[in-house]
Amino acid sequence: MANFYPDELISEIVNANDIVSLVSSYVSLKKSGSGYMGCCPFHREKTPSFHVSGDKQLYHCFGCGAGGSVIQFVMAAENLDFPDAVKLLAERAGISLPEMGHSKDEADEFYKRKRRIYEMNRDAARFFREVLLAPEGKKALDYLTGRGLSMKTITSFGLGASPDSWDSLLKRLLSLGYERDLIVESGLCIRNEKNHVYDRYRNRVMYPIIDTRGNVVGFGGRKLEGDGAKYINSPESIVYNKSKTLYALNFAKKSTHNYLILTEGYMDVISLHQAGFTSAIAGCGTALTQDQARLAAKHSKNIYLCYDSDEAGQKAAKKAIELFSPLECNVRVLKVPDGKDPDEFIRKHGSVAFENLLTSARATTRYEIDSIMAKYDLDDIAQKVEFSREVALLLAKLKSAVEQDEYIKYISLKANMSSDALLSEIKKLRRRTLKNEETSLMKRTSGVQTAPTAAKKSQQRLKKAECGLLATLLSERTAFEKLSGNVSEDLFTYEFHREIYRKASEMYESGSAFGITELSHLFVGREGEFSEVFLQTAEIADVKTAAADYIKVIKEETLNVQIAEATASGNVNLLSELLKKQKSLKG
């Protein structure tokens, strides 16, 4: 992916975007030595382990291993692929991305296709809007207004209608100059076995799906009458990944509310927005995914789950709770009464009643307790015993003793059972879990010898010295020129370090742009490993002295590790030779 643009252009874009300034717009950073530190935005942590270096233009989390340049940060933070991250950073820095011409490679064709599909989707949305407002769209418009939507809301969400025709959209797109093959690739039309192309959506209400940058990436179409699926959604394409897209997040991210309301359907979202709950979002024709949960959590840590009250809705809510669990979100579950969905409830009872539902929303543990309780007949002794085991398993996972105690009281009251009996069940489960963990640990460590402490320390010093030497060599082209004569690939004991040195040498010999940033582009998919190497080194005052010191440590600690290994293996002859080398090195 890095080769979609020339390396020189990517380097210009990276260097034009100060990483400290960029990361600070997502994470609170504090000055620490020559760099900055904060809590990692990509995993849950209480003690900051996320480091940012303005000098090296790199970030690295020593907790989860995430790392790289501004490009990798934007890719992770904004859920973008490499080309779109480069584009965003170029726009941020005011750098134009040139058209590279047909002689480039297929990357240029990829970009053109992607831009054309964005344009095509926009034109399709305009077509559907025209149909909605024309006589042939009356049924669709009556459906939307009959669901209580105002024309203002219909316009705001870009709602439309597809005509009861096999090729109306196809003809419109062809007349606008779009190629037939690209129209099929976009998912707007389908090609059958006889090579005939026809519209995917016919006689449906159309819901455009818009990403957070305002691009129409796909559509959802609800049937008005006749046979066929109730909803048809756009297939995956080069512009649309439904598992990483949330409907109406483009609106919700601008909301003044400090929470998100996650619903199941397009109409639920639209009705809530019209009622003033402008932070409502939904999945896109698929069950909630981990990527969607991460995307929602990035915009707010306060999540309300507002799913249908039927069995399928409650199952979806339970899955959502599991997905948000590791993301440190404050998740609460709304109980919509009378088995109604949010759209139906708010149309019948209004925004004040829905506000009351938000106020009375249950914490996830309370919701799960109530769900478990509903499964059992608590007047039956056998079922009550089963209930106590299942609910104890849930409470045993709680880290807060206070929270656990409060829920024990709640269950005791609701289920008419002894608090002591329930607490005893929880303790028994915890003892069993602890025993299982100890047994598992014994199995994993059985027959494994721990390396001697001295060898471990030597390996740590060796690794740090190799990282320091690489950082010194790559601090600038002149440094590499002066120092590389005293360094060889064989000096490095770690294979990844040898690979970095090898590629740095090739980059230097080629005469191309040279430095840590430029080199990072050659380690696509391994940015975390790469950033860890260069963020372990303090600021370098004198490259010549620093390099000499690092080389000395590398040679000494390489011998120390070998001596420790020879000692552990009992190889007396090898140990004797190594001790002579060590004496010679010190002499």
Structure description:
The protein is of the alpha+beta class. The protein folds into 5 domains: 2-93, Alpha-Beta Complex (DNA Primase, Chain A), CATH 3.90.580; 105-240, DNA primase DNAg catalytic core, N-terminal domain (Alpha-Beta Complex), CATH 3.90.980; 241-360, Dna Topoisomerase Vi A Subunit, Chain: A, domain 2 (3-Layer(aba) Sandwich), CATH 3.40.1360; 375-443; 454-586, DNAb Helicase, Chain A, CATH 1.10.860. The chain is built from 25 helices and 16 strands. The strands form 4 sheets. The protein has a 5-stranded antiparallel β-sheet, sandwiched between helices. Strands 13-12-14-15-16 form a 5-stranded mixed β-sheet, with helices on both faces. A 4-stranded antiparallel β-sheet has the order 6-9-10-11, with helices on both faces. Strand 12, helix 11 (266-274) and strand 13 form a beta-alpha-beta unit. It is flat and about 90 Å long. The relative contact order is 0.07.
Key terms:
alpha+beta; DNA Primase, Chain A; Dna Topoisomerase Vi A Subunit, Chain: A, domain 2; five-stranded mixed β-sheet; 10% strand; flat; 25 helices; DNA primase DNAg catalytic core, N-terminal domain; five-stranded antiparallel β-sheet; 587 residues
Number of DSSP-assigned strands: 16
Which structural class do the helices and strands define? alpha+beta
Strand order of the largest sheet: 1-2-3-4-5
Percent in helix: 40-55%
The CATH architecture of the largest domain can be named as Alpha-Beta Complex
Approximate shape:
flat
Give the overall pLDDT as a whole number.
84
Low-confidence sequence ranges: 444-451
Radius of gyration: 30 Å
CATH topology of the largest domain: DNA primase DNAg catalytic core, N-terminal domain
CATH homologous superfamily title of the largest domain: DNA primase, catalytic core, N-terminal domain
Sheet with the most strands?
Answer: 5 strands, antiparallel
Beta-strand content: 5-15%
Count of discrete domains:
5
Continuous helix count: 25
CATH class of the largest domain: Alpha Beta
What is the distance, rounded to the nearest whole angstrom, between the alpha carbons of the first and last residues? 51 Å
